[in-house]
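Customer escalation, tier 2.

The customer says the design service returned an amino acid string that "doesn't look like it belongs to this structure." They asked us to rerun it and document both sides in this ticket. The original structure tokens are below, unchanged.
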């Protein structure tokens, strides 16, 4: 029941300086009064020092209580946070005392769900809470924070408002045909298309948003001793991978994160690919092929100073239909294979990992492929997940049907159903028409305590 008083530990598992036990619901004050004893009364948005008391009257800990009176709280209900020392035992004993006082354990994401139901957050912002918690780098956190501020919901509601205006004009012409003229079909088409194009922009921006959140995987592959590990070290600016003149030094994959402009790349250094190898090296080569198959971008490193070997030729030929960056390395020693390259490799980079300009060129090439030339705008609202994309695509499809109807010269009232459908799909995106099943699916992915 949504009016139950719920509680959970809101801080990560393990030891720390502080643990927080959060309580929310209509009986929050009564529960807090039984568990937290202080000489001072709890005041709204004020930290109060006192003792946390077990059901048998013993003191569990001494700490702070923060009271947030509803509706001016995260959930819209009365909320109390008990700040105790960061021992897992203390936190669990405090939570047990809260349960004994009348609260129950919160379900996953239930605090945020209550905030959504209270109108504190739209569904896009609620999902952004989970993304912000899961963000692994600054760009992903900034993008989630932008959605949390309501930017995406505002953009979607603007579209729904325009659809509502069009529907109102159509309704007026249908209800009062003698007094209100049917809207001009050409103007109606232009307005409908304008909304559709803005929805298409949202859908097309999903890949950029996903790039910011998840980053891009890059597999560094090539024959042995081409300089793959040296390139990894040069890109990272640190001696991460063991480098040797002996072929076959790298026997396993090494994965590191590289910060680029607005997103991160997961760089996977792999074993050199060659036909003749011992059993251990073959295992590493198999992992190299697996990394290449799963990575979005192939970073192929070739020794420019040597004639093209069979393994290098096969890599180049087999990767021509995918996103890739080709580096002919060791230009300081020669450029034989680079000069003999085929037309499909005309955009390859010639350089040496000893030269910082080569590393910069490789970084720029990865950035260009990953972003398709569009610099990530972290303040621009982006669709964040497949659910949102699906709703936007359905809205765009309905608007396309409406545009076709108008383009064919059919009566304008025939587009009403399509416009209503588009508005409903956009409403699903922001959660204004979300079902219980949808909410269950979204908030079940949250951690308990958020």
């Amino acid at each position: 029941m949504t009016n139950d008083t719920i509680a959970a530990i809101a801080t990560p598992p393990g030891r720390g300086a502080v643990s927080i036990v959060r309580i929310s619901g209509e009986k929050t004050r009564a529960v807090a009064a039984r568990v937290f004893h202080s000489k001072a009364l709890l005041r709204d948005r004020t930290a109060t020092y006192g003792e946390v008391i077990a059901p048998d009257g013993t003191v569990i800990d001494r700490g702070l209580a923060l009271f947030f009176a509803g509706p001016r709280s995260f959930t819209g209900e009365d909320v109390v946070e008990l700040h105790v020392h960061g021992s897992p035992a203390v936190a669990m004993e405090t939570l047990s005392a809260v349960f004994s006082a009348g609260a129950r354990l919160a379900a996953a994401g239930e605090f945020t769900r209550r905030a959504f139901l209270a109108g504190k957050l739209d569904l896009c912002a609620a999902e952004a809470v989970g993304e912000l918690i899961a963000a692994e780098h600054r760009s992903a956190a900034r993008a989630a924070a932008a959605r949390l501020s309501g930017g995406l919901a505002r953009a979607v509601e603007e579209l729904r408002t325009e659809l509502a205006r069009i529907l109102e004009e159509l309704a007026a012409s249908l209800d009062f045909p003698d007094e209100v003229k049917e809207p001009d079909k050409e103007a109606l088409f232009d307005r409908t298309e304008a909304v559709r194009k803005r929805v298409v922009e949202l859908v097309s921006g999903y890949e950029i948003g996903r790039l910011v959140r998840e980053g891009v995987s890059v597999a560094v592959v090539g024959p042995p001793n081409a300089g793959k590990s040296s390139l990894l070290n040069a890109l990272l600016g640190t001696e991460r991978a063991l480098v040797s003149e002996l072929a076959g030094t790298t026997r396993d994959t090494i994965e590191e994160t590289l910060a680029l402009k607005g997103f991160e790349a997961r760089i996977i250094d792999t074993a050199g690919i060659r036909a003749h190898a011992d059993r251990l090296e073959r295992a590493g080569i198999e992992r190299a092929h697996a990394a290449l198959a799963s990575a979005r971008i192939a970073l192929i490193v070739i020794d420019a100073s040597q004639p093209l070997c069979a393994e290098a030729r096969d890599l180049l030929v087999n990767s021509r239909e995918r996103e890739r960056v080709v580096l002919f390395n060791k230009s300081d020693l020669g450029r034989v294979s680079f000069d003999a390259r085929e037309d499909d490799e005309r955009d390859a980079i010639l350089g040496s990992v000893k030269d910082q300009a080569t590393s910069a060129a490789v970084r720029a090439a990865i950035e260009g492929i990953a972003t398709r030339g569009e610099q990530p705008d972290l303040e621009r609202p982006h669709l964040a997940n497949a659910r949102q994309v699906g709703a936007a695509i359905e809205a765009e499809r309905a608007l396309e049907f409406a545009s076709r109807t108008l383009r064919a010269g059919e009566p304008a009232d025939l587009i009403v159903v399509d416009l209503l459908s588009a508005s409903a799909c956009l409403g699903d995106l922001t959660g204004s028409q979300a079902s219980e099943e949808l909410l269950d699916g979204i908030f079940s992915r949250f951690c308990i305590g958020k």
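Tier 2 assessment: The sequence is consistent with the input. Residues 6-106 form a domain with the Gyrase A; domain 2 fold (CATH 3.30.1360.120). The two ends are 17 Å apart (CA to CA). Sent an explanation to the customer and offered a walkthrough call.
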